[in-house]
# Entry
Amino acid sequence: KNEVEQSPQNLTAQEGEFITINCSYSVGISALHWLQQHPGGGIVSLFMLSSGKKKHGRLIATINIQEKHSSLHITASHPRDSAVYICAVWRMEYGNKLVFGAGTILRVKS
Amino acid sequence: GAVVSQHPSRVICKSGTSVKIECRSLDFQATTMFWYRQFPKKSLMLMATSNEGSKATYEQGVEKDKFLINHASLTLSTLTVTSAHPEDSSFYICSASWGPNTEAFFGQGTRLTVV
# Structure
């Protein structure tokens, strides 16, 4: 079993829909990243959080440390949000390595 | 967020030659830089961790003599693929952070094709 599991693997949404991507992890972590990778390959860090909730524009990330679960929400989705969304955690034991989920492929249709 | 610049974005080289990829943190000092390899439709695979001024720490199964990493300053790390072979063709991406458990910022990636 992977230490970081994401769901769904693939997601197709209609423009304007509210989107949720989930991430569960099975190890102790110090922080969690949500990353966005566009078809060109470059990766953008959307959020790093260790507790509570963060919001940036139409993106919201939450984390529940006790339940070892995080969610990324996209409100009023747009075709330009189409990308791969990756959850990654800083493992406590490793200290300085990110462990990645497999990613969620999001396609937003107009 | 902070900016990490990776160069080149694409490179094609002949088998047997060496290729150098640069990763620069433009607006912060990166104590630690990471080099990843990504296969099609797969997640990132950590190759090595480099700390400024010290030798890189390679992950199991990564040949340190083939993938030479140098982190000579707090803003620059380089990955050199030596004696490249077609199986080295892949997408390589770096990331940089201030230190352990701090936010990681990623380069644009380098698509390497060995012919």
Notes: Chain B touches chain A at residues 1, 32, 34, 38, 42-44, 46, 49, 91, 93, 95, 99-109, 111 (CB under 8 Å).
